[in-house]
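User: Can you recover a sequence for this backbone? Please restate the input before giving your answer.

Assistant: Of course. Working from this structure:
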């Protein structure tokens, strides 16, 4: 997700206006120098402008990621996927001073207005009704994810039964260690890639029946086609299983390596590692907090915990 877009959501700006700003190649800094006419064209009212430049602390990115993922970026009241959304404080900020996830919810603009309107008591969109709708919708999203899993895997375009099973195994494994991952369905990408992984960056994932990156180079058109492209900075290659690497990038520690990501400009591949408090690429290509912020398995990152990792893999 675009960083400016997320920053605007964090300040209580609705997704339609946020996208207009991003599409205009503006950010929080350059917005301040825009003319009134330009701001009006983007849909930035005086009220929205006050929110953008308000000194109130923004909602942390991790919490925004959680809210959007658990709600499928959809209002929990109407569940209309096409509507613009906004992050709403269930107990108003002026009263609660709380940006905790429990005090936040994804609403469409219509129901956000209703939440701030006073009607007949029986019609009010009260905080209790919002909390109830949030819980029910997040539970339903989890249930729907399970129901559509098998049908989604039909979209994986596996060439062999073995490769299909390997892709499914990687999907289950990455979900189990806390990664936000989804199967690619759109026709333009599903023939090239298998999954998207969501964090502070969005990465594409491709699974091959290989044990080392050397088995892939110079024989796969996918890699050849993108060899000279920055796109490979956002592509994770996964092989037959997670394994130990003895040449860790951070202090030469041994880490659990799960795959590879290309180092553009260095003409080589970095190990994608499960390692506590670090990111999954080297410092040059910083893929922030993709594995570590929200995983339950922060402490199985060395050879001491290798059996734990393989145990999860083999479940």
């Amino acid at each position: 997700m675009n960083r400016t877009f997320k920053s605007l959501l964090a300040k209580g700006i609705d997704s339609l206006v946020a996208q207009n700003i991003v599409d205009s190649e503006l950010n929080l800094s350059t917005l301040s120098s825009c003319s009134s006419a330009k701001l009006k064209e983007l849909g930035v009212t005086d009220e929205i402008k006050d929110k953008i430049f308000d000194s109130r602390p923004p909602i942390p990115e991790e919490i925004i990621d959680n809210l959007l993922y658990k709600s499928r970026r959809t209002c929990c009241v109407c569940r209309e996927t096409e509507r613009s959304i906004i992050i709403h404080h269930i107990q108003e900020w002026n009263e609660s001073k709380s940006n905790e996830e429990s005090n936040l919810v994804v609403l469409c603009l219509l129901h956000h207005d209703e939440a701030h309107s006073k009607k007949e008591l029986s019609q009010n969109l009260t905080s209790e009704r919002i909390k109830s709708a949030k819980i029910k919708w997040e539970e339903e999203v989890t249930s729907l994810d399970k129901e559509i899993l098998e049908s989604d895997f039909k979209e994986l375009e596996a060439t062999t039964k073995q490769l299909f099973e390997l892709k499914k195994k990687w999907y289950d494994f990455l979900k189990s260690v806390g990664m936000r991952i989804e199967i690619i369905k759109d026709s333009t990408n599903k023939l090239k890639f298998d999954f998207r992984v969501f964090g502070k960056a969005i990465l594409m994932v491709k699974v091959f029946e290989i044990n080392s990156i050397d088995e892939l180079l110079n024989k796969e058109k996918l890699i050849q086609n993108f060899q000279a492209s920055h796109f490979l900075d956002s592509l994770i290659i996964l092989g037959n299983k997670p394994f130990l690497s003895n040449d860790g990038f951070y202090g030469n520690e041994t880490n659990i390596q799960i795959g590879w990501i290309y180092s553009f400009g260095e003409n080589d591949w970095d190990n994608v590692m499960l390692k506590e408090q670090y990111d999954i690429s080297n410092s040059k290509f910083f893929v922030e907090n993709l594995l570590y912020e929200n995983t339950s398995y922060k402490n199985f990152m060395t050879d001491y915990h290798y059996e734990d990792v393989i145990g999860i893999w083999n479940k």
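That completes the design. The first strand starts at residue 85 and ends at 89.
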